[in-house]
Amino acid sequence: MTDLRRFWPPWLDDAVRAEVQAAYAGRVGGYHDLRHLTEVLEHVEELMPPDDPAREAVLLAGWFHDVVYDGKADDEERSARRAETVLAGTGLEAEVGRLVRLTSTHRPAAHDRPGQVLCDADLAVLAAGPERYAAYVHGVRAEYSAVSDADFAAGRAAVLRDLLAKPTLYSTPEARERWEPRARGNVEREVRSLTRRLAVGSAAGAGESEDRSGASLVDEAYDGMIRALAGVDEQDSWRPTACTGWAVRDLTHHCLADAQRALVALHTPTREKVDRDAVTYWSDWAPDDAAAAQGRRFTRVGASMFLAWEQLRALYVDTARAVVHAGAASDPTGRVRTQGHVLRADDLLRTLTVEATLHHLDLVADLPGAPGPAAAGLAEVRRVLDGLLGASPALDWDDERYARVATGRAGATERELRLLGPMRDRLPLFA
User: How many CA atoms lie within 13 A of 288 on its CB side?
Assistant: First the structure.
């Protein structure tokens, strides 16, 4: 834990620091807590040299910028007044109060270097890695637990769109260089997720996929994989998966190859006749033990070239996000070529959703606590399986059980085999 006393002016009563620090430390489960305070102060230090005459005021503004936080519209104003009261007579009260008020809009003037530094430090979390960004989003939601999901999604999306409307998220050249691309990607993905929730409402939660575009489905499926991998460390990367002979890092390498293939396909337009859709794409599959063994070895050798797990995970995350971006920008009716076939772009994205969803199930087989695949992805798998079978099995399977049995990831019980009837001879449909 960082000792925050080094950020506090030595001439100012340390009892005041302890009181301000306690205000943040007392918030459990939300985002505006002691960790947030620590990160803001560290980022101010990162962006301002020690000899900058404005640094002391900016650090004090960092201390006070969320000292009052109730999730209300006047939090910043009340925090500024608290700072002005505490600092009265120091000569810094007016400047610190002004800086704290800037954090309500994060729009400092072009000449306001102190304001730019504080606002950039406050927004630095937008450029965090997947695990920290997910914790940030969870913390913000927890602070508004009394608000309905729909109202929260609408309000949160409006705030994020307002940020994206700025020419840049960050004002200082240093922050723009270090944080801008990742932050903009994080915020854009969150806005897309919130927009989907608002658009499909409870239907998305129920897993309906036919009314969803392939682009939105693959976005959700890939985002789920990224979130599941966010909690995997070097040791966990060697845990087994449900794919024979593959550890987590091997499966991640395979999914990386899928994403790379997707990028090539989305950038390989053709005028040839479409010969497959999202369902019939899988109809060519046939068991081939020799080819499967060769593929497993190829993937394990490729994964072994990454000496550090974080390098492999980062490459997968970047590539998956590039696929989502390319998919969103593609013409759904445009024709693309992959694996020797021609599909509409929307159908290609649906096949990628199915593959990512099934491999997500494989991934978390020995990762306790890791999040599972999205409901909409599992619903798309069900739609494809029903299409291949020509009907839906007369069984009370949920989407996950159906996916596992129909793709050979789990065996059917004797009762299930009886109820499947002739369909049982066609399983697995693909693997």
Answer: 9
β-sheet bridge partners, residue 341: 338
Task: In whole angstroms, give the CA distance from residue 248 to residue 153.
Answer: 33
The answer to whether the beta carbons of residues 319 and 256 sit under 8 Å apart is yes
Around Cβ 415, how many Cβ atoms within 10 Å?
9
Q: Which two tokens mark 168?
A: 């840049």
> Would you put residue 29 in left (φ > 0), alpha (ψ -120 to 50) or beta?
left
pLDDT, tens digit (0-9, with 9 covering 90-100), for 54-83: 999 999 999 999 999 988 889 999 999 999
342, containing H or E segment: strand 341-344
Cα 169 from Cα 47, distance rounded (Å) = 15
Name the DSSP class of 240.
B
Question: What's the DSSP call for residue 335?
Answer: E
3-state secondary structure of 394: coil
Task: Give me the residues paired with residue 269 across strands.
Answer: 336
Helix axes 75-86, 55-64, angle to 10 degrees: 120
Instruction: Report pLDDT for 285.
Output: 78
* Eight-state DSSP code of residue 278: T
Please, are residues 216 and 224 in contact by the beta-carbon 8 Å criterion? no
First to last CA, the chain: 47
Question: For residue 106, how many other CB atoms are within 10 A of its CB?
Answer: 19
pLDDT at 203: 44
Q: What CA–CA distance (Å, rounded) separates 385 from 406?
A: 7
Phi, psi of 247 (to 5 degrees): -85, 175
Determine if the peptide bond prior to 428 is cis (ω within 30°).
yes
Task: Please report, as a single letter, which amino acid is at residue 82.
Answer: R
The three-class DSSP label of residue 48 is coil
Cα–Cα distance measured from residue 259 to residue 313, given in angstroms and rounded to the nearest whole number: 13
Q: What is the residue type of 306?
A: F
- Which phi and psi angles does 335 have, rounded to 5°? -95, 135
Residues 6+ apart with CB under 8 A from 88: none
Whole-structure pTM value: 0.55
